[in-house]
Amino acid sequence: MSARIEAPRGTLDALPAASGARDLVLRTTAEVAGVYGYGAIVTPTFESTELFRRTAGLGSDVVSKEMYTFEDRGNRSLTLRPEGTAGVARAYVEHGLHKTPQPVKAWYAGPMFRYAAPQKGRYREFWQVGFEAMGSADAGLDVEVIRLFVEIVDRLGLTGVRLELNSIGDRQCRPAYVEQLQGFLADHRSELDDDARAKAATSPLRVFDTKSPRVAELLAAAPTIGGSLCADCAAHFAEVRAVLDALGVVYEVKPTLVRGLDYYTRTVWEFVNDDLDASQSTVCAGGRYDYLIEEIGGQPTPGVGWAAGVERLALSLGDLEAQPEIDVFVAVDDPVRRTEALVALAALRSLGLRAETDYAGRSLKGQLTQAQRVGAQTTVIVRADGVTVRRRGADDIVVETIQEAVEKL
Ligand code: ATP
Ligand code: MG
Q1: What's the whole-model pTM score?
Q2: SS3 assignment, position 171
Q3: What are the structural domains, with CATH classification, of the chain?
């Protein structure tokens, strides 16, 4: 036997028998996308490295430490996407979607790649579902995308998920605030960790993104952006909150909440599931990104959106039955009639019934055990001289042909 090859560190195999929770997340997201009028968008899993350099900001964790960057055979620098928004915005610009009715509303589901230290709920390849609404600065749209995730959470039946909300201002008010913050960070330099000191130098707002409880405690005394919003940003944030209140969406304003990526403006939020470990408890994060599209060469275009971690939502759901019980098991006692049985199997499935048969060469007894194991409501037993329809808890019915048996179902 050759040496075994294992999956790369930090990756995940989602096996068919354990796919219930994951499937439900993806299906529910697609349903809610339909109700809210978001169309599916598929963009490449790799993009020009430049796209992420420009959008995420050089000081970000993602760009500085976590990107899977490689050169292809034509010497192009490409990067496996660490997130979905940049690619969607690029597609918006590339295909001139500003000429179509605004806002453009799109959603996606797919794998993202980040070279980070793996742990439960944190992988190097993971899936996100995400929603983007581009071409409107209307506070009602911020609320729409937030409410959309609440709808997904409700349909999934998750109860422990709460919303944290903040506004991080815009070009008018952020620079003055950042100066204030830098002053505070300089005064407390010795109390910061290396990570916070590095961020203080490149992108001070991101120090709030710290994973260190000690630094977080220190930052509780730092000036917050909320106190420095300009009139426009303050009015926008007030409207977001008023509409959320009107919709009965419960949230907590968290003045230290920021996003790890540079292009966010104004409204930012996270949905946290406290039932998960703290390091993996953020199930969804989003915000407004009014400067992103011009950053990549489009006309100034506001946008808002979020991404949710599929594995973290699946973890939140716990183990779910991967496959529902089946309706009909077709057992074959007479090998001569096997092809006939397979034709009947296909016909049953065409009728929308969940039907199965044996592909493991089991004896009739083995097949009947298997039928029970998969929870078959009905077993059709194809014998040399007839067909038996055996329903759970009912008497056997014996008919002559498989066709007749199908009609009995
Ligand atoms: P975190 O602070 O947990 O690292 P983040 O700020 O990097 O998250 P985003 O880039 O906003 O997260 O991604 C949105 C969501 O995608 C996260 O809230 C999380 O649910 C999920 N996610 C992010 N990184 C990972 C990962 N490495 N493995 C699994 N899920 C992830
Ligand atoms: Mg991260």
Answers
A1: 0.91
A2: coil
A3: 16-173+229-317 (3.30.930.10), 328-406 (3.40.50.800)
